Amino acid sequence: MSEAGDFVKAIAEGYATDGPAIDLGRGMHDGEVFTEAVVQMPIRMANRHGLVAGATGTGKTRTLQGIAEQLSANGVPVFVADIKGDLTGLAVPAPADGPGVSRNAELGIDAAPTGFPVEFLSVGGIGPGVPLRTTVSDFGPLLLAKVLGANQTQEASLGLVFHYADQHELPLVDLTDLRALLTYLGSGEAVASILDRKGVPTPVVASKLPGPLSSMEPAGDPGAAAKASPLFAKYGTRVENISAAEILKERLKKEEEAGSSDGQAPAGKTETKSKPEAKAGDDGGLVSDGAEAIGKFLKSRDGFSATCSAS
Asked: What is the pLDDT of residue 20?
């Protein structure tokens, strides 16, 4: 048997299957396509992980499109996360003179162009498609914790809440149901302990707190309530809408402009003049004597007592 015959036999035996299969093309040897070397994968293996790798433009998306078509033709539902809309053409038959038809003819595959049943969905109603909705129960505690950015403690608490809902057959349809269940499970229960004046704690006790007499929901229109207050008549109108920083900035600006017009040094360039040294006796000795007297007083016992009393 020739080398080509050995290749065809090896591929045909290696990819043989006795049930429905996904056609992955025909084997190539030394650049030549052999239509008898059928490369296929049993459909029962389609629930496993797979990898389609290749550079840009090598046909990764079209490979996935072909797999999705064959799964749909065999009655297997397919969910495709199509971010750019590259696979929306699944719903439309290929043109008779398109590249897909010519490729199938090259491989010896007799298949007429056809479209497939497709439902276009959109997450959160963004983009064209039917808005995709799901229940909180189907969302699950782990994914919900990731979306909410919960910490480990909050994630564990969500897991307990979902477990309680499952055990008691409580469907969590939306976030309102989840909020109601959280309110029911944590309705004002606390562990209380109070320190007396000597710091001795009272016995630790589980306590159910009394319910608030006012509404626990946010007020409907707090702005209207604020305007109805007597304080609004006095403080509701702003008297000065300029801050102190803005006033000081404007004042400094005016001083700089006035200084520049009088020929003084511009802002940022300060002129300094050396002051003549003070001669001994100009102050009559009051400054030096006063400082020395204050220093002696602070170092004395009376001064130390006065300082402690002030502090």
From this structure: 92
